[in-house]
Amino acid sequence: MQNLSSNTFVNNFTESFEGDQSGSLQPRQTPGVLYSKVMPSPVRAPQLLAWTEDLAAALGISIPNEKDIALLGGNFVNPTMQPYAACYAGHQFGNWAGQLGDGRAITLGEWPLSSGNSWELQLKGAGMTPYSRRADGRAVLRSSVREYLMSEAMHHLGVPTTRALSLVATGDQVRRDMFYDGRPANEPGAIVMRAAPSFLRFGNFEMLAARKEYDHLRQLADWTIEHFYPHIKGEDKILTWFKEVLEKTATMVVEWLRVGFVHGVMNTDNMSILGLTIDYGPFSFLDAYDPNFSPNTTDHPGLRYAFGKQHSIAYWNLGCLANAIAPLFEDTTELVKTLENFAPVFYEKYYAMKAGKMGLDEVKGYDIELIDQFENLLATLQPDMTIFYQLLIELPEDLRDEQAITAYFMPALYDQLSSSERELLSKNIKDYQTRMALNKTSKAAAQSQMRTNNPRFILRNFLLYQAIQELEKGEDALFKRLQAALQDPYSRDHDEFFGLRPAWANEQPGSATLSCSS
Ligand code: AMP
Ligand code: MG
Fold this sequence. Notes:
This protein is an alpha+beta fold. The chain has four domains: 12-199, no CATH class; 212-351, no CATH class; 362-438; 461-506, no CATH class. 40% of the residues lie in helices and 13% in strands. The chain has helices spanning 12-16, 53-59, 66-72, 141-157, 202-210, 214-228, 237-259, 310-325, 333-340, 342-358, 367-381, 385-393, 402-409, 419-436, 443-453, 461-472, 477-485, and strands at 19-20, 35-37, 47-51, 84-86, 89-92, 95-99, 105-112, 118-124, 139-140, 163-176, 185-196, 261-262, 284-285. Strands 3, 7, 8, 9, 10 and 11 form a six-stranded antiparallel sheet that branches. Strands 1-2-4 form a three-stranded mixed sheet, with no helix packed on it. The radius of gyration is 24 Å and the shape is globular. The mean pLDDT is 97.
């Protein structure tokens, strides 16, 4: 175990690539380099609000002392660190946005592990970088709490994600116009230390392709493969790598659909090259099952990033990545074929996931139809997704008439059902019962399969909202209870949080609706 402030960092990325070494904070385009050297800007009074013990233990990092806390707040940098902001581009809401880059994330360096690998440690909200454009490089407490808790919640749900090691209040105020409606206000600032093997995004590759820096592009692809896909070797390695990125991305989205997660801003600069959930902003879990739901008010005209569209956006984003790496191919036929294979790759994973949630022992015969009908049922009735599946686990085998079935699922419903909806529910549940009787495995086995695939605790936006309201008043009781619950999302031990979203939260800004302002 080592302290963060001890001289243990390595800097493979900065030592492998060209960077802008000027250290200037002047907002600018940085052609010809993959990053810009930048120091975190000090804050007034860093105070540790949360520390992720299990992650720290896994990385071999000791409990923070005063110097470490200064480091987590951006007030201390040791000589083994070469802090930088990465230069990347992206497609935002379907349009090419050009250079973006880490506008408020500063990577301090890589933390070496005993395995020989390393993890990138990054401060989010540690001040301006050359990529801050007209913004301040800071983050507010509310968005930092959301990222801190949600990335950990996703990890414990078993969803591929970046992690968060610490949450630090800065003691400074940050000015934000939360809903872009001309009413800016001061809010407390905070910094999250994020951790992942790498924060490289599709956008890092898109930037180099757009600038026609093909040597850098090849170098970055090779480096990514060497470090994070080391088993890929040989002549076709770029193609094999793209195939694996596609598979990981498909898996990530299937996992989002399993737990009911809406990312909210699936721009290509927010797509990890490792298939990790990255850049937690205006995300939400589904309460009511609505495939057209997006919590992101910035996305409300077109609902591009709604829950049920996430797989098609992933495919679109993979198309951008394929385009970016195309110059590395003499012949792109196989690359295009691999991209066009997204749907079968995705749907195989998707139906297996749905079967897991429903307790089917395999996907055979009419199962795809049954699963599709179930999907239609949920989209029509819009029950609470989490509660619905919890009830499904305990569904009594003898429940066969419409009235009894409707009554059984009442605790999951936000609205009264019409007679046609009751009929639909009853028909689907009866079909489901008939299919479950064909399982070759026992009922107990099906139930335990369902329990491992259906979380009982999800970090609902209204809970986050309440925890943030309390934290802004200096109380951390709810924050702590949520932190405990999210570590154990499949158990019944945190049933104080098991229930429908309360009515007050339906329209509450900051809970039901969120913007990109963070
Ligand atoms: P996001 O939608 O949060 O992924 O951010 C998109 C881009 O805006 C990225 O380049 C961010 O670094 C940048 N950005 C977002 N918020 C800020 C901020 N407060 N200061 C500087 N850059 C920011
Ligand atoms: Mg981003």
